[in-house]
Amino acid sequence: KLPASEAEAKGNIIRSSKHPNDSYFKGWKSTDDKILWNIEVESDGLFEVQVYYACTEKNVGSEIEMQFNGASISNKIQTANNAPVMGMEHDKVLREESYVKDFKPMKLGKINLKKGKGTLELYSKHLNTPDDLECNLITLRRISE
Description:
Jelly Rolls; four-stranded antiparallel sheet; mainly beta; five-stranded antiparallel sheet; single chain; 145 residues
């Protein structure tokens, strides 16, 4: 699992809170915006990738791509996930920490990754509507060596 708390944003993307724990990324405005994780792949293998996201109907058809050390994979958003912010209704005082959302997984696909260190990048190859796409987690599950 690669949570937003362990990533950095480049471009217009911002965290949902100044506190990284339980935060997510929002403010995706252009194809130049990226979310970056410094990772190490311990051995070559085939991985299944999922991106946990939220967006409205306006971004159905937008394309998300992941790249690591020359290997890349992409897929189009097929289903909207207009997840509301949760937790605010229980607060008596405005919190500094991030509120949460029910992010849904989207299969990005399968990718062969080689052993090594590098920066895993998540970005949009095509973004229908700016400031609508949000992300809080990527999962990479090893399928085979």
